[in-house]
């Protein structure tokens, strides 16, 4: 007689695999990012005090988002 470890109970067939549930939200967000970029490809002129910059609208909006996130994180750390 050999020592065999006890078998674990099999998963029910209706259970969602962990990899599918884990990757649904990132996949949806990636699709939304691609749609966002494709819909906002027009060039925009941005003037910040003296320099004038011409860039795609999606890049300008992404830079604005990143700046806002950095400011939010800095204010959040300051309150703690």
Summary tags:
single chain; 56% helix; 80 residues
Give a description of the structure:
This is Integral membrane protein. The chain crosses the membrane at residues 21-38, 58-75. The protein has 80 residues and is α+β, with helices and mostly antiparallel strands. It has one domain. Helices cover 56% and strands 12% of the residues. It contains 2 helices and 2 strands, in the order H-E-E-H. It has helices at 18-39, 57-79; strands at 43-47, 52-56. The protein has a two-stranded antiparallel sheet with strand order 1-2. It is elongated and about 80 Å long. The chain starts with 17 loop residues before the first helix and ends with a helix. The model has no long low-confidence stretch (mean pLDDT 83).
> What is the total domain count?
1
Widest sheet: strand order?
1-2
Helices, by number, come to 2
The amount of helix comes to: 55-70%
- Total count of strands: 2
For the biggest sheet, the summary is: 2 strands, antiparallel
What share of residues are in beta strands? 5-15%
Shape: elongated
Transmembrane segments: 21-38, 58-75
Protein name: Integral membrane protein
Keywords: Membrane, Transmembrane, Transmembrane helix
Furnish the topology, listing elements before pairings.
Elements: H1 18-39, E1 43-47, E2 52-56, H2 57-79
Antiparallel strand pairs: 1-2
Protein name: Integral membrane protein
Organism: Actinomycetospora straminea
Transmembrane segments: 21-38, 58-75
Compact description:
The protein is of the alpha+beta class and 80 residues long.
């Amino acid at each position: 007689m050999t020592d065999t470890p006890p078998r674990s109970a099999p998963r029910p067939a209706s259970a969602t695999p962990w990899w599918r549930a884990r990757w649904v939200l990132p996949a949806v967000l990636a699709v939304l990012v691609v749609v966002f970029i494709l819909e906002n490809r027009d060039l925009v002129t941005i003037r910040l005090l003296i320099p004038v910059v011409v860039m795609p609208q999606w890049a300008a909006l992404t830079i604005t988002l990143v700046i806002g996130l950095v400011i939010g994180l800095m204010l959040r750390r300051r309150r703690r």
